[in-house]
Target: Aldehyde dehydrogenase family protein
Amino acid sequence: MEKLEVLAAYDQKLIKEILLIGKEEAEKQLDRAYTLFQDSSRWLKAHQRKAILDKTAQLMEGRIEELTKIAAQEGGKPYIDSKVEVLRAISGVKIANESISQIGGKEIPMGLTKASENRLAMVSYEPIGVVAAISAFNHPLNLIIHQVVTAFAAGCPVIVKPASTTPLSCLNFVEILKEAGVPEDWVQVAITDSATAEFIATDSRIAFLTFIGSAKVGWMLKSKLAPGTRIVLEHGGVAPVIVEKDADFKELIPSLAKGGFYHAGQVCVSVQKVFVHQDVVDKVAQGLSRAAEKLIVGDPLSEETEVGPLIIPKEVERVESWVQEAIDGGAQLLTGGKRISDTCYEPTVLLNPPLDAKVSTEEVFGPIVCVYSYSDRLQAIELANALNVHFQASVFTKNIDVALDTVKRLNASTVMVNDHTAFRVDWMPFGGRDHSGEGMGGIPYSIKDMLREKLMVIKSNLLP
Model:
């Protein structure tokens, strides 16, 4: 059987080899999950799911160090940030657990017309069916929580395909779920190739697909879904920021640096395009450059590291070529612009790159922040909205009227005021619009999406 080699993102050393499953085993997974769901007598009751998730959180709290090191090594996110991810993941399990208590129905009024007399109508919610989850590498544990735990909390069997570069966090977490009491076949892991993942996702037995990854793959999968399959897609963006001349610079610079260089920019809402009023553009650009120069780049397992590697060496080559293209086109390189190793690239700040350069038109997914000068805020907003990707954005200003007007005009699913674009908590709605995705994530929102309504109408002459 073919094997997947899992390499450490930083030094490309072999961590583990895992057997890949093919379509034959994937078919068995689908059959087991579908058969399980079709028998409603086997559905897990709310109190059972809550008890399992409670135990899961307890087990994770006892293994924070182990979970942190697995995520940091395979994914390259620095130890300090990977630990934050693990703590978020534990919190996410607890949020999902609490959300089960919020799954409730409602009464629909009857007797309002002659035809509706003597009836009682109640809406209840039940799990939608088998969930397929295809995940991304950049948050190897927390994304699994958002896709797998939400499905389990909703009462759905789930088959999860983690990113090929970061499957270990997922496998380890699923073992924790089993240890916590998840019965057989409720959560299955498919370590497989793209073709088999597509086979699973587009099978008619799948009722819900949650996909986090590239727009090209996501929209392709949607076009091939079986009729009736519900979908949530989460793709990328370019995270524009509008900076007015009255912004608070003491908070602005560290905020932009964190939002732009966190996880080496490998976040779908990383700060990428910063439009700054011409009166303060030099101050902002130089301040951001100084902040970037101070960042410690290196081994993600070191507690000193602030910026780790890109996920694979090929990504370093791509980022390097994009930056060079921008410089050749007239961008001013303020800091960075060079590879440190085969896997690490310097935090880089570019001033006024061409608007048609790749760093201006596509998601960089690397440690690159572009600063653009503007004189007219409305024109800056027009440029921020010009691409077909729209996810999170932000505006920095002390003027509440300007802030509210900018929030209204920016085409984004979420707009931060005086904060970077990468802010997120796991109970808020989160997702892209237009080319950047479809549907909203966020743990309570995902659970709701994985439920469907059932109306029961009782007729009795004893009813009014």
Observations:
- DSSP finds 15 helices and 20 strands in the chain.
- The CA atoms of residues 111 and 119 lie 7 Å apart.
- The mean pLDDT is 97.
- The first helix runs from residue 23 to 38.
